[in-house]
Structures are given as structure tokens and as C-alpha cells.
């Protein structure tokens, strides 16, 4: 069903085999770990202490548009080109990204996947199950950080894959696309706190809630099968034959739903990059539903 030659999801055994063949100049493994502020975890420090051999760290807070005062917004072409070139990545490099989340099979790797795709790079795969599954299946780890020759990456920003607040605001009248929120239902309904102290829970009007974890087999540390994913979208009331924009807290788990829809063959999806963090901060009070007073 996937149209790309490069597999979207790869297994631990697949990656072990790739690594055993050598030829590191053709691919680059990236640790794209990121954790919510309340987790009080330092993803970069953890990477330095142990990672898949040959992996480099991709910091979604660093490779970002920092001018907007919002967490990890999509980087400009210039910022992205410089950042990934310094990771030894060229336009023909196959990028394999993973993250280190004990609870979910992926939590931030899909944001890195989406970032590469927005900036014009389709040769990107995700290690399903991440570092915990790699370790559970006897994959080696190291604290050695390799020095790689600088790449020469040339990017191209696909603006169709990103929606801004003005687009979401206009859609309240035009209803051109569905907006689907990936956050847990309790946050969407305003009854559980957001992971950021300056943001209360709630939702954008006319939004469908589809919690990102519903697309996963959490115990098996995998995404659900295409047949199961189709049912998940249908039961939530999402029509993948129509335009859809995915949202969440800060544009990270929205990319889980983007990934799930891509696994079903959908390619014309977008994410609302600012997501609820921006909407809560900037939208008029009457357009912030279920927000505790």
C-alpha cells in the first residue's frame, strides 16, 4: 500500500541487517527522542549515555523555527539544510529515525519523519518500537558518538503539509477540512491538565478527537495493522477520503495520526503546527471550548 520504495516502518531485525552490511554513507540513523516537560527527562543526555551504534541525535527543539515562541515549530529551509548537513545527510541519504519512550512504540520519531517530509525528503523510515524494543531484542547500544563528514542537503518546504492558526480560524466558517485532535480525551474535554504549566486543557471548536494511542498496539510496541487503522479512523468519524488536518498539544503526536493515515495510503494530509498550545494562547476566549475557568 505504501508508495515509497523506502519502507515507512522498519523492524529491529531489518535495522540489524542493514547495520551488519556496512555502507554507512548511504544511510543515517537518528535518535529523535523528545519528552514532555513534566517527564523531566533529558533526551540528549540519555542519547549520550546509550544509543544505537552509528546514531546521531536529532533535537526537534533545536532544528526548529525559534522566532515564533512556540515549541519545536517546523524549521525554515535554511535552518533545516544546515542542521541535517551537519548530521552528514545528503538528499540521497536514507534516514532511519527512532526514539526512546518506555510507554509507546513511537512518540517523537514520527515528528522527525514529518519534518523531513515537509522539507522535501521522502527517504525516511521509523524504527517501530524504538530503542526499548531494540534493547529487548538484543540490539547493541554504545556511548560512542561518531564523527561524520558534513553533508550537502538542499531542502524544499512543502507548505501544503502545514497549517497555521489563520487556516484553522478560516475553516471554522468554510469547513474545507476536518480537524482531528490527537490528544487524550481527558485533555480534549478539559478535565485533565496539559503538560505545560501555562496552558489549560480544552479544544478547538468543530474538532474531532482521536487519541494518538488508539492507533497503536502498545503492549506489542507497534502500530496497528492497516485494517485496524481504517476502523480506528472510521469509528472516530474521520473520513480519510476528505481533506484532514491533524492537531495535538504542540504538533508532535498529531504526526502519529499523520503517519497512520499515510500507512493507509493517504498523502494529502496536513498538521496544524502550533496546535492547542498556540490556539489556547492566541484564540479569542469564545473559541476555546471546555477550558476550565
UniProtKB/TrEMBL annotation:
All copies of the Rhodanese domain together span 23-143, 173-288
Q: Which Gene3D superfamilies match?
A: Rhodanese-like domain
Q: Which GO terms describe its molecular function?
A: thiosulfate-cyanide sulfurtransferase activity
Q: Do you know which PROSITE patterns this protein is assigned to?
A: RHODANESE_1, RHODANESE_3
TM ranges? none
**Principal place where this protein is found?**
cytoplasm
Task: Please verify whether the record's keywords include Transferase.
Answer: yes
Q: Which UniProt keywords apply?
A: Cytoplasm, Repeat, Transferase
Localization, per the record, is: Cytoplasm
Q: Which SMART domains match?
A: RHOD
Q: Does the keyword Mitochondrion apply?
A: no
Q: Which GO terms describe its cellular component?
A: mitochondrion
Protein name listed in UniProt: 3-mercaptopyruvate sulfurtransferase
What organism does the record attribute this protein to? Biomphalaria pfeifferi
